[in-house]
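4.2 Preliminary Data

To establish feasibility before requesting continued support, the project team ran the inverse folding procedure on a target of 75 residues. The structure was first converted into the token representation described in Section 3, and no sequence information of any kind was made available to the design step. The complete token record follows.
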């Protein structure tokens, strides 16, 4: 689409009781990202993981994490 630059993919899985519960969602998005990079090499960002599970997200390839609660506290 003209005027749209895809930078990558983002996911927010269901809020986990345990961080490890997010891993299957992150694995799946990482696999989709690899497929996307074949067509759009500029779409290298992989945004996944929040304060509760960002370590798992990084292990699965996240390039962007959202850790607002760790910085600003609960809202």
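Position-by-position output of the design step:
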């Amino acid at each position: 689409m003209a005027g749209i630059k895809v930078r990558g993919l983002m996911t927010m899985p269901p809020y986990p009781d345990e961080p490890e519960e997010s891993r299957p969602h992150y694995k799946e998005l990482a696999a989709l990202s690899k497929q996307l990079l074949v067509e759009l090499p500029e779409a290298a960002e992989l945004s996944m993981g929040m304060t509760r599970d960002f370590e798992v997200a990084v292990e699965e390839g996240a390039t962007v994490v959202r850790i607002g609660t760790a910085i600003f506290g609960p809202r």
